[in-house]
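Record type: monomer structure entry
Structure origin: computed from sequence
Chain ID: A
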Amino acid sequence: MIRNMVTSALAAGLAAWLLAALLHFAFLQKYILLAEDYESGAAVHFGGLAKPAAPEPAAAYDAATGADTSGSMVMDGQRDEPAPSPLARNFWTAVFYGLVYMAYASLLVAGFGLARIYGRGITAREGLLWGIAGFAALQLAPAMGLAPNLPGTPGAALADRQIWWWGTVLATATGLGLLAYGRGLAAVAVAALLLVAPHVIGAPQTESYGGLAPPEMAGTFASRVLGASFAAWALMGWIAGAVWARAWAGEADKPA
């Protein structure tokens, strides 16, 4: 089983990684870069590009350290780091997507293994449904309380958001599992309670709204993040199910 799980996870994770990275660069990155312009003041609402700031002196001398500080700004004892090059930024973005979707694929295939222990077979069709359920549990349901945000968007305390996010993921995944494989009205009732509970409790929010980017841009970004994630999860589930079914069919064809 371990070999089949690794094969399915690698194939599905690689496919989802490539699709997610492609969709990010095609549909999401321009909004992130523009939001960073709003965050830095290079762009402003209703005004296009901001006027360039007055030029800094050719050299700034730090009497305490004897260092030339003309290339950076010091605030509260911290020195700004130079912005990464576009090539480095794109490289690490692609690496991040690879790590995330390989992890997602491993979780998905671990679920396949658990289903097999209980006598449930997985095909490409079931894999697709599992992928959609994974998207609903890890991204769609949490986004109903904590939508994908652009840079410069204020948020509640990080620890509170993480607690609510994990609780929502676990409750949604368990609820969907009970709906799919549970028996009787009791399972349906518990599933409905788990699916609704995180949203009745409510995600932690700020006391007021104050994002720097235009709200229209923030809304478009959030919808595109969810659309791209749905496509990657659906592809990942379908490929994982297809590879899983073929691997176990091959095991069955082997002589005892």
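Annotation 1: Residues 145 and 202 are 7 Å apart (CA to CA).
Annotation 2: The beta strands are 43-44, 48-49, 61-62, 67-68, 74-75, 78-79.
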